[in-house]
Structure prediction request, 97 residues.
Amino acid sequence: MPQFTIVLDRKKCIGSASCQALAPGFWKLDKDGKINFIQGVQKKDDIQERAIEQKDFKLAMESAQACPVNAIHIIKKSKHHLKLFFNDQLNTGPGPY
Prediction:
């Protein structure tokens, strides 16, 4: 069962493709020069999401950290709360809930 959701804000994307270089199984460059998910879900306002499991978290976080415009975020799902990981956080310790 997926524990995390990667969120891509395509409006912020500048097409550097650094995320794709690190995690080519998650990302593809579109004709418009911006990144899309492979197997992602299109949401409103040019937002895309993809559910991932714990085993993919580190790779997803590395690709988020590589984004120069902070267009990629990761949300941890749990029964009682959500935790948002910004692209400058690899620490999975206690944080805002």
